[in-house]
Amino acid sequence: MSRHTTAPVLVADRVSVGYGRPPRHARAVLTGIDATLHAGELACLVGPNGAGKSTLLRSLARFQPLLAGDVRVDGVSIAGYTARDLARKIAVVLTDRVAAGQLRAYDVVALGRYPHTGWAGRLDRDDHAVVDRCLTDTGATHLADRPMSELSDGERQRIMIARALAQEPHALLLDEPSAFLDVRGRLELTTLLLSLTHDHGLAVLMSTHDLEHMMRHADQVWLVTGGGLRVGAPEDLGLDGSLQRALAGDAVFDPVTGAFQTGRRPTGRVRLIGDGATMHWTRRALDRAGYLAADDATIDVICVSGNGQPAWLLRGDGRQHTADSLAALVALLRRPD
Ligand SMILES: Nc1ncnc2c1ncn2[C@@H]1O[C@H](COP(=O)(O)OP(=O)(O)OP(=O)(O)O)[C@@H](O)[C@H]1O
């Protein structure tokens, strides 16, 4: 499928989710949700702790009943699917630990084929090929023979994603899939999800607290705010202040860098001169140390190169020093002479 496939796969129509029995004993966590997940789209579900992200994901996949409204997948209400047919449409990776006993990782991924196999659950050659492919795609081939009970959190997460992919669903819902992954694992997961969505047309909705990932890669953000949901491109939600209001608390969302920063006020100002990577990391070090880069500041910090090594010249207010590291530069700035 092409990168620009935009057919709606999952549509939430005036949905309320929560706990208890409607109407009298229900406690709604989120209400009035209208949202559409499209083929070929990576959507990130974000919001503060306890806002209702897991509850929404579980409800969209019919793991718990809706309090109101309807969810349609490929045009049909989820209430109208058999469990087996729904599993061909939606796969879910939750954070709950599964009791896999002494099952090997391969067997767990093979369980993902259940919507496609006969009642006996016997896998044919094509099914095994799918399982192998899903293990390869998730970088988990080397784990295939290991018992699930012996896997690390990150390794188990890969297997659970492989299992979900083995269902060959149209929509994949993941609850904080990167929570246990190391830096390399996170990058590989991002690459995998972008390939599944943009190259193969899968619709993916994942909850995350990794805002940098969201800002960089999400086609759409599902932002939980005020007991409801606001959907938009990450940049639009950054520009109109929605991310700041919903997520930042005391932190400040910098609409220029797309990053969240603490609400600490800068303690000094410098004029920063330089370019490239040295300039980038210098700005970060100064920012962390509480110095704002401003063109009208009376102290210059000049990024220079000495013998191919970065170095810095600090000049102004009657003093001039050089520093051979950013730590030294920050120490000089803080020195009260
Ligand atoms: N089984 C349950 N019964 C009743 N209330 C629940 C149940 N599970 C969660 N809740 C409540 O529903 C609300 C939303 O919880 P949920 O786990 O969906 O939030 P979340 O956005 O996923 O949070 P986090 O970012 O911390 O994972 C919370 O107030 C939580 O206490």
TrEMBL record:
ABC transporter domain segment(s): 9-251
Top-level taxonomic group: Bacteria
Keywords: ATP-binding, Nucleotide-binding
One Gene Ontology MF term: ATP hydrolysis activity
PROSITE patterns: ABC_TRANSPORTER_2
Keyword check for rRNA-binding: no
Any Pfam family the entry gives: ABC_tran
Protein's UniProt keywords contain Nucleotide-binding: yes
InterPro entries reported for this sequence: AAA+_ATPase, ABC_transporter-like_ATP-bd, P-loop_NTPase
The name this protein goes by in its record: ABC transporter ATP-binding protein
